[in-house]
Write a structure and sequence with these properties.
three-stranded antiparallel β-sheet; 404 residues; formyl-coa transferase, domain 3; alpha/beta; Rossmann fold
Length: 404
Amino acid sequence: MAATGPLQGMRVVDVTTVMLGPYATQMLGDLGADVIKVEAPPTGDIARNLGPSRRLGMSGSFLNMNRNKRSLALDLKQEPAKEVLRRLVATADVFLHNMRPQAIARLGFGYADVVKLRTDIVYVGAYGFGHEGPYHAKPAMDDAIQAASGLASLFVRQDGRARYVPSAVADKIVGMTVSQAVLAALVHRCRTGEGQFVEVPMLETMVAFNLVDHLGAGAYANPPNAIGYPRASSPARRPFPTRDGYVCVMPYDDRQCLKFFGAVGRPELMQDPRFSSFAARAKHTEAFYGFIAEVTPLRTSAEWLAMCEAEGIPAMPIVDIEDLPNDPHLRAVGMFEPHVHPSEGDTVLVRPPVRYERSPAGIRRPAPQYAEHSAELLRELGYVDSDIAPLASTGAVIIPSHQE
């Protein structure tokens, strides 16, 4: 399937591993970019073995995060491999890495080095902490950033225990921010012809994300109250029990609350000073949610969902993550696409969520096996067989035997 997305014709050199960077470049690949995944010997990206797999090195998570990419395996400790990467960078629009700045500089691919190879390159460093701060040399992973950004502490406000969100949210949110940063820098280049260095630090990105709602009183020079968004971190903010399970019921504005109180036979509560306005309910979150929790056990989940739909009140069932592929809405919009992988057989991948009328994104290439495209890419860069043989024999470039 030929590239048709809005980034058709753009080339991205992806020197990232695990989830943050690969998720960012997966989105760029879905948008049509030619993403070259540069992997290190002996086995490539550690995410190849992240979670369940049919075969070593091709986990289910890897299949989804690394579709629309080609794999080039280089031992960047060897000078001939560095020369391959230099040639590749000279053909690229974007260079993206998630190493600490000191590490990438030691390899000879810091911004000052790369910009000499392609003056208008968009160079993106995505790592734990901004290079100007005292944490700049620290290693970082998702859990560490959830802790340092205040996210893990928000659970203390709910039930007294710090914990992590059961999802790699820091990696994924920062990955989305990286893709946004790349697109913005490419727009700038289209307008001015200028490339640039772009830094996307995990801590700063997650602090900005967490404080969208939780900054609260901290927006004022002399905070009148503690920082935080009480409704979001209230212990009472959780799925409500019903006669046969749990449900999300969320009367929010005044009209919805009036309908809700009427539907449960308590219309007078709209005159209660605690509930009579949005501002009042925001100050009395515990009481408001407490009342909802008192009445929801009186009906089944289906009854609540039917009532809320009739009255225009936001409500949804609590869906187990394993049931998502069978959700009627997700099935109707084709969220889960069947694909046949050359080595892994029948697979199901999550399609790009955004629809583009004129330049559709899509899954056109399966996730690569380790070093699958090494020989192909070397030939694209002008190497001939007599050049490729010594690169393979020394291990500077990993080339599967069937490609030689």
